[in-house]
Amino acid sequence: MHQKRAERVDLDPRETTEWLEALDDIVDQAGPDRAAYLLDKLAQRARNFGVELPVQHNTPYVNTIPAEEEVPYPGDRALERRIKSLTRWNAMAMVSRQNKSDHGIGGHIATYASIATLFEVGFNHFFRASYGDQPGDLVYFQGHASPGLYARAFLEGRLTAEHLENFRHELREHPGLSSYPHPWLMPSFWKFPTVSMGLAPINAIYQARFMRYMENRGLLPKTPRQVWAFLGDGEMDEPESMGSLTLASREKLDNLIFVINCNLQRLDGPVRGNGKIIQELEAAFLGAGWNVIKVIWGSDWDELLSRDHSGLLVKRMDECVDGEYQSFKAKGGAYIRKEFFGKYPELLKLVEHLNDEQIGRLRRGGRDPQKVYNAYKSAVDHRGQPTVILAKTVKGYGVAEIEARNPTHQQKELNDRAVQLFRQRFDIQLPDGVAHDIRFYKPPDDSPEMAYLHERRRTLGGYMPERKVPAPQFDAPPLENFTELLGGSKAPHPSTTMAFVRILTTLMKNPAVGKRVVPIIPDEARTFGMESLFRQFGIYASTGQLYKPHDADMFLYYKEQQDGQILEEGITEAGSMASCTAAGTAYSNYEIDMIPFFIYYSMFGFQRVGDLIWAFADARGKGFLMGGTAGRTTLAGEGLQHQDGHSLVLASTVPTCSAYDPAYAYEIAVIIQDGIRRMYQEGEDRFYYIMLYNEDYVMPEMLAGCEEGIIKGIYKLKAAEGKNGSTG
Ligand SMILES: Cc1ncc(C[n+]2csc(CCOP(=O)(O)OP(=O)(O)O)c2C)c(N)n1
Ligand SMILES: [Mg+2]
Fold first, then answer.
1. What is the pTM of this model?
2. In this structure, how many other beta carbons lie within 10 angstroms of the beta carbon of residue 456?
């Protein structure tokens, strides 16, 4: 009889010891790699005998990169620390000053305080603004860490003290700064509106995939460009955050790096007080096929770990839950000695040479530039998989009385004592008066730190974040291009959906515009009669088609190809919208105009993925959303999925959306032609929602001169019958 794993008892302790000692010998004499090889072989053999093996999706609660494999830090740590401290100071001063003058206006200190090192190592060594004449890395910054990004741009001379003074007053005072990343409020600064939690992760995944799509279609040169996404650990609870992880591994997106700022807290309290968020995320990401790098402990722990011959320190690290880790930081050194090390006398001995203050200062990995640099380097060098870096940090780090406390997220102001302690902690040297009044401070341009700051960004191709908009790149094809839609239909009459498919096909064949069109479909192409596009334009598949499709001998077969144009997304309206966002903002990310057509069941658009659409609008996205099978139609019998009488109403709430409900084929042609002209030729940052119907009926011929009326929303089709135009 098999024993269940949880119930297994040691039936022969002597034999167990022999096996364990054999393993010890191998590790001692031949090293861990050999041990891993043998274990692998054993596991294979065991599986052949039907032995049930545990699936392991967790490694011990220590850093993934062992200290002995690290490379030395390439930068000037002292100068970088000074720059980081000044950034911390200005970020804190910005939020604090604003709340003194305008009480309760908000802003966040604690988030940037936790993520500062993760950003700074990136700015000094990784984030590339350009690759020669090509735009560089795309970085999604954690939205409410914006004070730190403003503070850095201030040091760089890109923002003035006046900007900082008007933080969150951008609509009232000039020049001002928006609370969060916002391409409308700060059009030459922010690329990605990230503050609606969960949208940055999914948008970053599809962005990295879209980058490959552009490369594989020959529209974008291949560069080592990366997509970086800085995310909160609390944010990972949003379904959108983790819902598309397997797309990234399936597509081998080694141009994608998630950095999750695991400060163990969200707004109200701990993310996983009773568990460990890093371990939970490790298991999920490993299971989804990602490369996982844990950055848990700072360098000060290396020496302790190297003397941990019994493994007790790692055991203690593994057994504590995040609620305890939070208390350790909130309560300081003496508490850590007693409650963390104190559980085992051996561990107390391990730290007997450290005083309480030193114990309190033992750093977490996400705060140690050496560890962070190595993780980033390893992520950038990694091939064949996306990488997630799980960096353990401290929320509100360095801010007295709020560090690691539950209310820290909403702390806005600091009292005099807290300011004093903040300066001491980061060793912030300021001229007289600056500290007392909590004024902004920027060292002279010829100071070593300023020279260093500029030199680093010069080497990396320029300052970030920055949003650039290229000049219009093509003229819209004239309406005559769509002649076959303008002359009225012959039997069998089409639906407006079919008319749209003809417009799309015509557009895709247009020599000037065709290659820029990106059809995006969440598994409804056949419903909309679009399968003819498969064969003509190909379905994008990064690997090409690895099998002979069963319908290969048919005219309209399911053709996948590496430079296919159609994004057949499968059943994910959220993923499709993220693709639409990547395509519709390609002009500001890659300086190439692309025209997405995202066609879906109208019920699953605005009401299902409304917030992604809103973020698309915030990102100044362009393109067309096509709501298929709209209206309370003949498909009503299929249930509520075809009871859309309101998507037009929802669409009209998005400020940059032009929403239309056309009746006839030529109206759609006029709207799409004019849309392309306005968005791409005139450079207007808007997008279109067009409803499409399922019913076949007579499409009349277009009347001369009705274009303007169609665009405005009403025109005279024919005079009503009867007296005074009344039929009644
Ligand atoms: C969809 C959504 N829900 C709620 C919020 C409000 N909110 C802003 S920050 C925050 C907490 C974030 O915690 P975490 O992701 O862990 O980031 P941290 O500040 O700890 O780095 C919340 C709930 C939001 N911005 N978006
Ligand atoms: Mg957090």
1. 0.95
2. 18
